[in-house]
Automatic annotation (TrEMBL):
Extent of the signal sequence: none
Gene3D superfamilies found in the cross-reference section: Potassium Channel Kv1.1, Chain A
Residue span(s) of domain BTB: 18-87
Stretches of the chain forming a coiled coil according to its record: none
Pfam families: BTB
Annotated organism of origin: Zymoseptoria tritici (strain CBS 115943 / IPO323) (Speckled leaf blotch fungus)
InterPro entries membership: BTB/POZ_dom, SKP1/BTB/POZ_sf
Protein name, UniProt field: BTB domain-containing protein
Superkingdom per UniProt: Eukaryota
Length: 240
């Protein structure tokens, strides 16, 4: 039977119309919790660099062209939704409303080389996130920290959406809100400085958000003096 782009949704997880089984594991080996689905290689290869490589005849993958393809250390719900998406099965309304779930999907789609899906999931994530953020930011400063940490987990993912101006603004919006809401506690929190300094762009913005840079502890000034001085004097130098 000739395959085409017009796959039917009913073809997903249909063993009679599949040539590979995808086994998803939460851990590093096949003893961990798992979930499996019957798929077709041609569908998975489309727009996905990772699956295209895995199912190529000259692939270096040990299980290339076999009947089973194993994926380890993955989110079961996220991968299931991603595989369904390859067949045109969109997430449910409940899933779409969950910004964390859509962020996972954008991450997974990018990881598996599907930039088109990554963009779509990112747009859904951003819309859902903005709705939650607008509703909670006046009354939930602690939630800003939780949101920030989840966003930063995906900062190193190399998909274009994260590197856009809008995305940078989103990250800084949440980060600066967190700093401003927790100013007095954070300015003496060594763990905070160690953690946030791992994200240079946001770190510089957070330093600038402190109302009195001179009030930073001496140890912090010694460790991050260059960044502090540039924040204090950089703009003046540019304007001089």
């Amino acid at each position: 039977m000739k395959m085409s782009d017009g796959m039917r949704k009913a073809d997903f997880n249909d063993e009679s119309f599949s040539d590979v089984k995808i086994e998803i594991y939460t851990g590093v080996d096949d003893q961990s919790d798992r979930r499996s689905f019957h798929c077709h290689k041609l569908v998975l290869k489309k727009d996905s660099e990772v699956f295209a490589t895995a199912f190529n005849k000259n692939s270096r993958f040990a299980d290339a062209n076999s009947a089973v393809y194993k994926v380890f250390e993955e989110d079961l719900d996220g991968i299931e939704a991603y595989l369904k998406g390859r067949y045109g099965i969109a997430p449910s309304d409940a899933e779409t409303a969950d910004w964390e779930f859509m962020l996972k999907l954008a991450y997974i789609a990018s990881k598996y080389g599907n930039s088109k899906a990554a963009r779509e999931y990112w747009d859904d994530f951003r819309a859902a996130f903005k709705k939650v953020w607008d509703n909670t930011r006046p009354t939930a400063p602690k939630q800003a920290e939780e949101m920030l940490k989840k966003l930063l987990l995906c900062e190193d993912v190399a998909f274009e959406e994260w590197n856009s101006t809008t995305s940078k603004g989103l990250l800084e919006l949440v980060g600066l809100r967190y700093v401003r809401n927790n100013h007095n506690g954070l300015i003496k929190d060594d763990d905070f400085y160690e953690w946030i300094s791992g994200y240079p762009r946001l770190w510089r913005k957070c330093l600038a958000a402190f109302t009195a840079v001179a009030a930073l502890p001496d140890a912090i000034r010694m460790s991050y003096g260059g960044a502090v001085d540039e924040i204090k004097y950089g703009r003046r130098r540019q304007n001089s």
